[in-house]
What we know:
10 helices; alpha/beta; 2 domains; four-stranded antiparallel beta sheet; six-stranded mixed beta sheet; Rossmann fold; single chain
Amino acid sequence: MTSENAPAHDDYALETVEISKLFGGVKAVDELSVAFPRKGMTSVVGPNGSGKSTLVNLLSGVLPLDGGTVIIDGVGLKVVRAHETPDHGITRTFQEVRLFDQISVWDNIMVVLTNRSVFPAMVERTKSRHREKAREVLENVGMWEKRDSLAQDLSYGQRKLLEIGRALALEVQTYLFDEPFAGLFPQMLERVKDIMKRMRDEDRTIIFISHNMDIVREMSDYIIVLEGGRLLTEGEVEDALNREEVIEAYLGA
Length: 253
């Protein structure tokens, strides 16, 4: 647990201090205080209804806080606005992929690199640095050969890759991935894992939700386990997953 006076900027890219979110009378996130290490990859796990996706939605401004503070690089925020999160060094992907389906793969990246709205990004005269960056991003996620395809014509796995590419194009510090591996065939799953590992090697802060405990063990440097909107445990992966309360609650032992 951390406080607003803790040296968040030294060790943590992102913290929460007693944040809450209510849906009716149910606390989906219940005065949750957690810290996400700046270095490495942190997984957030827990059963359906434990508050994982709600937490990511609060951190990314998709949902408003009902209480508490989000600390980004030492700056405390009582209100997180989705359109401002890239300015705070945060971006995200969604469990249900969100793309501009009626435009090309290339233009989906250019929207991010230029004006961040669809029509101006398509008609504005692009600069060479934008074009070079778009190519770099698409090659990084293995989508260069699909650059002229409409987003709506991509396979599910390719759509995942393009959404990750859009996030990479922002060049922020902290990336929130909501179920990035769900529904992927093995070859595409390995490609997504490789992309995320390269991001970690570049000292990006990676936070991801997953139900796949094998992937959690393989990919995580740190783990946060939620239950009923509260923190059940956190720590080094094997140590946390071997704790009795986690085994009983999530591994069925």
